[in-house]
Amino acid sequence: MPLHAVREDLAKGRLVRLDIQDLQACAFALSVSAVYRTAELPGPAGRWVIERLKDRVDDTVGSEQSEPNVDA
Tell me, what's the pLDDT at 13? Predict the structure, then answer.
């Protein structure tokens, strides 16, 4: 979770940080989906966001085994 979203909960002890051995900070992947009605395609801003998500996933995944899960 992003630190800004859980900082208060960490400080108050409602959440604890897990340090997992052999796991680098960016060694995990998140699935990303863009959902929209086919009858109402995204406008320019929506298409821009979808393209940025695709680019981000492609840059992150690179040549790893898993395929990015981006629906457009």
Answer: 94
CA 48 to chain centre: 16
**3, HSE (Cβ side, Cα atoms, 13 Å):** 3
pLDDT, position 68: 47
Which residue type sits at 30? Answer: L
Across residues 21-45, what is the average pLDDT?
A: 77
User: Is residue 69 a contact partner of residue 33, using CB atoms and an 8 Å limit?
Assistant: yes
Domain range list for the chain: 24-72
State residue 22's pLDDT score.
67
Contact by Cβ (8 Å): 7, 15: no
Q: CA 69, CA 60: separation in Å to the nearest integer?
A: 12
**Measured distance CA(29)–CA(69) in Å, rounded:** 10
